[in-house]
Design brief:
Structural class of chain A: alpha+beta
Number of domains of chain A: 3
Order of helices and strands of chain B: EHEHEHHEHEHHEHHEHEHH
Strand content of chain A: 5-15%
Helix content of chain B: 40-55%
Number of helices of chain A: 10
Structural class of chain B: alpha/beta
CATH architecture of the largest domain in chain B: 3-Layer(aba) Sandwich
Number of strands of chain B: 8
Number of helices of chain B: 12
Chains: A alpha+beta (242), B alpha/beta (298), C mainly alpha (134)
Oligomer: heterotrimer
CATH class of the largest domain in chain A: Mainly Alpha
CATH architecture of the largest domain in chain A: Orthogonal Bundle
CATH topology of the largest domain in chain B: Rossmann fold
Strand content of chain B: 5-15%
CATH topology of the largest domain in chain A: Fumarate Reductase Iron-sulfur Protein, Chain B, domain 2
Number of domains of chain B: 2
CATH class of the largest domain in chain B: Alpha Beta
Largest sheet of chain A: 5 strands, mixed
């Protein structure tokens, strides 16, 4: 009776290339050619986007879009720049949902649960309803992120939220009014600044540099003329691929 | 006797036991290991939901505990052991409610996208220790009897009430902690506030009221000449401790029953997270007991 | 004769409380054991048994305006002692819930409270948020 709902539109559902496809942008219908992304379709329909558009490459989180399909009560999400149009798609963009940025000095904060609760006391209101996970265009386990944060497990928050693009859809749907991506960012920053194991070989290399191991080479390079530099560049050792 | 198949029990720590109340978690795990029980933590567990507001149609608040029970079921467990009184009460009451309210069950199941909600029995470690391990076996396993230690066992409210739904022990005259502490060699002290409320979440909403509730319990235990008070709930432990923060040396140490259990089973004291006051009280009673023993012997 | 059949508006409120809490408000015969048992009665403007009396007598608005449901933490001492098996804590819960659903509560927590909230036990903060905020 229950099937797993795919978060992004499947390949089969997308309208075939060039075929006239009816979509509804904020309730108004437009006929657009199939094969376009939602973003391109909106521009085709005449919208000139100054918000709700960014890298156009699925990375910046500026174009989160929520849509419904004909005859289906479910909410679907996707990034407008990555999601192809479907016939009957009923969409709107949610370029920004209010979530003020907290201001803090990372070096002055300690990596413990109390720090997270100090800035985001509302995470304890989480109802474990999983709506955030269902609405994430990156298919992240958002609810488990919040759970890990409540348990003071920064490493897990960092791992689970690594691919978060701060699009804000989770924030828009959360009944407990949590700002997930701000919390995740603080947790990741605290983890990176204070908890993640330091690379030993990097420390060693830094010490070598400070002790002057590469001084002569660097000075020689700085003094070299253009011809020498070009020769050195052409003859440099290139790592084999694979 | 714990039979073979029951040696591994699914365990739900709850958020506090991962953070502020780590000593309760670690001392309980250590104790269980010495008794041949492995507490296997649930994978990917989420918050139990705090205290579910008990009204007929609050389905949203049932999602959190239902999800925990579902996770236990999916990982192949029919029972789930809890330690934190908040988690225990929430999960047990939610389970009771869902069993008896068909519409709630249907709605929650639909939302969680399952056909039906599973039946998972929620247990507290106290009942596992007293009923499954058994008091006799506990007594045999004690390496360091806590003789001379006068302990006031404090239950609080969530462990016992509502009696019909929780049915862990008698709500007015409970005996589980008494039996357990007695097996450890402690001198169990009777005091009238055993099952009174510590103020609960008024430590957030009305700190004066919480303080008053907590102080009444501490007075009652002090009047009964207790050396330490044992609690089973991170909030009780906090409220009781916090409300006597001005009392310095005369303050009553508040420890978790699991810490005393682990100590009696032979764990080194330094590893059990006793604060300075509790450690001093334990050492005093041990010395007093030795003193008595040598006087009697000599 | 069942007093539940009265049709006045205040009875409507009492009926909602009875439905949400699944309690028979008229089972209470005002013995006062709940008030005697309540550890937070000292912090209440109206004693617990009085709240149920308001609901019985068509004065549900007085029960609504009272601070008493917000002082209750659901320790269930009352329910434990009631000789008629009335769960007064659930009645308090219903009163709180009906006010919360109208976005009316004496408690508001914001980011400004994060500092001191982070020093308190998490379970208590979770429970407080669940029970007294919308």
């Amino acid at each position: 009776m229950f099937q797993k709902q795919e978060v992004a539109a499947s390949q089969e559902a997308q309208a075939p290339l060039g075929e006239t496809t009816r979509i509804y942008i904020m309730g108004k219908s437009y006929d657009v050619p199939g094969g376009l992304t939602i973003l391109k379709a909106m521009e085709y329909a005449g919208y000139r986007l100054v918000r709700g558009v960014g890298c156009r490459g699925g990375f910046c989180g500026a174009c989160p879009t929520v849509y419904r399909k004909a005859g289906d009560f479910r909410l679907y999400v996707g990034l407008a720049c990555q999601t192809g149009v479907e016939d009957g798609m009923y969409l709107t963009q949610i370029p920004f949902y209010p979530a003020p940025k907290p201001v803090y000095n990372l070096q002055q904060l300690s990596p413990e649960l109390g720090t997270i609760l100090r800035f985001f006391p509302e995470i304890v209101r989480c109802l474990q309803c999983n709506t955030c996970t269902k609405v994430c265009p990156q298919s992240l386990e958002v609810m488990n992120c919040i759970a890990a944060a409540q348990q003071g497990d920064f490493k897990r928050v960092a791992e689970l939220s690594f691919d978060c693009i701060s699009c804000g859809l989770c924030v828009s749907r959360c009944p407990a009014e949590i700002a997930h991506y701000h919390m995740g960012l603080l947790a990741r920053r605290l983890y990176g600044a204070h908890l993640i194991p330091r690379a030993a070989h990097l420390q060693r290399r830094l010490e070598e540099i400070e002790k002057g191991r590469f001084e002569e080479e660097l000075i020689a390079l700085c003094r070299a003329d253009r011809q020498t530099l070009e020769r050195l560049y052409a003859e440099r050792v290139i790592e084999p691929e694979g | 006797m714990v039979d073979e198949e029951k040696k591994t029990l699914a365990y739900y720590p709850g958020c506090e036991l991962r953070t502020r109340a780590r000593v309760l978690d670690s001392s309980a795990r250590r104790s269980c290991e010495s008794l041949g029980i492995t507490l296997q933590e649930l994978k990917d567990w989420t918050c139990c939901g705090g205290l579910v507001a008990q009204v007929k149609d609050n389905y949203m608040a049932l999602l959190a505990p239902a999800r925990v029970l579902l996770q236990a079921h999916r990982q192949g467990f029919k029972e789930l052991v809890t330690l934190c009184a908040f988690c225990f009460n929430t999960l047990r009451r939610a389970s009771y409610f869902l069993e008896r309210h068909a519409e709630a069950r249907r709605k929650v199941a639909t939302f969680l996208e399952v056909e039906t909600l599973p039946q998972v029995r929620v247990l507290h470690l106290l009942e596992v220790l007293c009923d499954r391990v058994g008091i006799d076996r506990l007594r045999e396993a004690v390496r360091r009897p806590l003789k001379g230690l006068r302990v006031a066992p404090y239950y609080g409210c969530l462990l016992l009430r509502p009696a019909r739904e929780i049915s862990l022990d008698d709500p007015e005259e409970p005996v589980l902690m008494e039996k357990l502490l007695g097996a450890l060699g402690c001198e169990v002290v009777d005091f009238s506030s055993r099952t009174d409320c510590c103020g609960s979440y008024h430590i957030v909403t009305n700190q004066g009221a919480a303080s008053q509730c907590a102080r009444a319990i501490l007075h009652s235990a002090a009047n009964a000449n207790a050396d330490v008070l044992t609690a089973s709930c991170p909030v009780c432990q906090f409220n009781l401790d916090w409300s006597q923060s001005g009392n310095g040396d005369t303050a009553m140490p508040v420890v978790y029953f699991a810490q005393l259990l682990a100590l009696a089973l032979g764990e080194p004291m330094e590893r059990l997270g006793f604060d300075a006051r509790a450690a001093a009280a334990l050492e005093r009673s041990a010395a007093a007991d030795k003193g008595e023993a040598s006087r009697e012997g000599g | 004769m069942s007093l539940l059949l009265s049709l006045r508006r205040k009875e409507g409120l009492a009926k909602e409380v009875a439905a949400l809490s699944e309690q028979n408000l008229y089972a209470c015969y005002q013995c006062g054991k709940c008030t005697a048992a309540c550890p937070l009665a000292f912090a209440m403007d109206e004693p617990p048994h009085q709240i149920i009396r308001f609901l019985q007598l068509g004065q549900a608005d007085r029960a609504f305006k009272s601070d008493t449901p917000w002082a209750c933490v659901g320790c269930l001492s009352c329910a434990g002692f009631c000789p008629k098996g009335v769960d007064l804590a659930r009645i308090m819960e219903a009163l709180r819930t009906l006010r919360l659903r109208k976005l009316d509560t004496p408690f508001r927590y914001t980011q400004q409270d994060g500092e001191w909230l982070s020093g308190l036990p998490q379970s208590a903060v979770v429970a407080a948020m669940r029970k007294v905020t919308w």
